[in-house]
Write a structure and sequence with these properties.
CATH superfamily: Dihydrodipicolinate Reductase, domain 2
Shape: globular
CATH topology: Dihydrodipicolinate Reductase, domain 2
CATH class: Alpha Beta
Strand order of the largest sheet: 5-4-1-10
Order of helices and strands: HHEEEEEEEEEHHHEH
Helix content: 25-40%
Distance between the termini: 20 Å
Number of strands: 10
Structural class: alpha+beta
Radius of gyration: 21 Å
Number of domains: 1
Strand content: 25-35%
Largest sheet: 4 strands, mixed
C-alpha cells in the first residue's frame, strides 16, 4: 500500500520499492513503545461457538509466560507522500473472526458542506484479502429526496463472483511461484534485515518496560487499550 510504483514488474524492481518503505519506517523510542503499542494475551472465552481455554492454560505454556498473542500499534513512514499519515496495524490469535484486510480511510475536507450530517464518518477503501477477496468503496451519498442528508453506501467488487473460475489459495500461489521461479512475492534478504531492524527495538523495548501483555477474552477483538489507541486520534478499527 505504501510503496511507490515500481519501474517494472520484475522481482527486483518490486522488492526495491518495498525495501524503501521498510527503511523509511520511523524507529520507536521507548516512550513511543509505551504510548503507541499494545500487547495482548488471550484468556478464556468463546471462539467459533465453542468455549476455549486461555493461552496460559494451553499445553506446554509456562504459567508466567509473557508471550504476546496480540499486537496493535501506530506506525509512521517518513516519506514526502506519507508525512503525518498514521498507519495502524493489528494482528492476533483467537480473535472474533479470522480475516485479513487493508482499510484506507480518506481525510475529510477541512470545511464541511453538510454540517448537519454525522461527524467522523469518512470515505473508505476496504481491500479484503481473506477469507474472501473483495474491494469495497464506502462513500457518502445523498439520500433520495429534497433534503441534503448524507448516508454511507458501499460500492462492492466481489472477485469470487466476478471471476467464476476457481482461485488458487494463498499457499497454492506461493508453491506455483516456487515451481516457476517467480520471486516477486518472496522477501529478499535485505528486506528481512530492514524489517527486523525496525521490529527488534520494539521487542527489546517491551522487555525493558517489563509490563505483562494485557488480557483479552478469546473470541473478542483484543484488549481495550487497542481501541483507546485509535480513539485518542479520533479513529476506530474497521470490523
Amino acid at each position: 500500500v505504501a510503496m511507490e510504483p515500481p519501474t517494472s514488474l520484475s522481482p527486483d524492481a518490486v522488492r526495491d520499492e518495498k525495501l524503501k518503505v521498510l527503511r523509511s519506517l520511523r524507529r520507536f523510542s521507548l516512550a513511543d513503545i509505551a504510548r503507541d503499542t499494545v500487547r495482548g494475551q488471550y484468556s478464556h472465552g468463546v471462539s467459533g461457538g465453542e468455549e476455549v481455554q486461555g493461552y496460559l492454560e494451553e499445553a506446554n505454556v509456562p504459567l508466567d509466560s509473557r508471550t504476546e498473542t496480540f499486537v496493535a500499534l501506530r506506525a509512521h513512514i517518513d516519506t514526502w507522500r506519507w508525512s503525518k499519515v498514521p498507519f495502524y496495524l493489528r494482528t492476533g490469535k483467537r480473535m472474533a473472526r479470522r480475516s485479513s484486510r487493508i482499510v484506507i480511510e480518506f481525510a475529510n475536507p477541512p470545511f464541511p458542506l453538510f454540517p448537519e450530517n454525522p461527524v467522523g464518518v469518512t470515505n473508505r477503501l476496504v481491500i479484503e484479502l481473506q477469507p474472501e477477496e473483495a474491494i469495497k468503496l464506502q462513500i457518502m451519498a445523498k439520500q433520495p429526496g429534497s433534503g441534503v442528508q448524507m448516508q454511507q453506501v458501499a460500492l462492492n467488487l466481489d472477485l469470487q463472483s466476478a471471476f467464476q473460475q476457481r482461485r488458487a489459495e494463498a499457499y497454492e500461489r506461493l508453491l506455483i511461484d516456487v515451481v516457476r521461479g517467480r520471486l516477486t512475492h518472496f522477501m529478499r534478504r535485505d528486506e528481512l534485515e530492514a524489517a527486523w531492524a525496525w521490529a527488534d527495538p520494539i521487542i527489546e523495548g517491551w522487555k525493558t518496560l517489563g509490563e505483562k501483555p494485557q488480557q483479552y477474552a478469546a473470541g473478542s477483538w483484543g484488549p481495550a487499550a487497542s481501541f483507546a489507541l485509535l480513539a485518542r486520534d479520533g479513529f476506530s478499527w474497521f470490523e
